[in-house]
Amino acid sequence: MASGNGLASLGADGASAAARALSLPAEAYGNDSRVEALWAMKAYNHAEVYFNLISSVDPKFLKLTKQDDKIYSTFRETFNDLNIRLLKEHDLKSDEAKERWRPYCNQFEGVIEDFNYGTLLRLDSEKDYTEENTIFATRVQFFAIEIARNREGYNDTVFKARSSKS
């Protein structure tokens, strides 16, 4: 994943101000395009850090939250048939999918910080974040799918590709 200017271009004071702004409730802003841009940068930076992490450390050893075991077990109980290697947009965005995801995600309210914040998620676990391979998901959806990918070996391809180049 190529690094852009991102939050680093804001400097320490600008990044601190951005963090304070992003912690305010959405109602405080309406449809402010500057806030949307900050959210996009934050989501991109999160994606970049995560991809670098699974490229550098064997994913099966990663722990993403203190609740990984609960997230994984309840995810597989609810979505035992979901193909996490190659997601389709309708797996998260169709009306039927939303009805399945909503109760799953809501059980983590107050358990996972910012459980419903927007995050970028790769559709194909074997590929990098690109416009074609990225979908917008909630943080708990990201955790559920990526914890499962790590435990079930679907992120191994990314790790092995990077380590074979070293």
Summarize the structure.
The chain has seven helices and two strands; from the N terminus they run H-H-H-H-H-E-E-H-H. The protein is mostly helical and 166 residues long.
Which key terms come to mind for this protein?
mainly alpha, yst0336 like fold, single chain, 7 helices, 166 residues
Spell out the blueprint of helices and strands:
Elements: H1 11-22, H2 33-56, H3 68-78, H4 90-93, H5 95-106, E1 118-122, E2 134-138, H6 139-152, H7 156-165
Antiparallel strand pairs: 1-2
Account of the 3D structure:
There is one protein chain. With 166 residues, the chain is mainly α. Helix 2 (33-56) crosses helix 7 (156-165) and helix 3 crosses helix 6. It has one domain: Orthogonal Bundle (yst0336 like fold). The longest helix is centred in the first third of the chain and has 24 residues, at 33-56. The protein has helices at 11-22, 33-56, 68-78, 90-93, 95-106, 139-152, 156-165; strands at 118-122, 134-138. It starts with 10 loop residues before the first helix and ends with a helix. It is globular, with a radius of gyration of 16 Å. It has 7 helices and 2 strands, in the order H-H-H-H-H-E-E-H-H. The protein has a two-stranded antiparallel ribbon with strand order 1-2. Mean pLDDT is 85; it is low at 2-7.
Helical segment count: 7
Distance between the termini: 16 Å
Give the rounded overall mean pLDDT. 85
- Largest sheet strand order: 1-2
Named at the architecture level, the CATH assignment is Orthogonal Bundle
* Helical fraction: 40-55%
Domain Polysaccharide biosynthesis: 35-159
GO cellular component, one term: cytoplasm
Organism: Channa striata (Snakehead murrel)
Protein name: Polysaccharide biosynthesis domain-containing protein
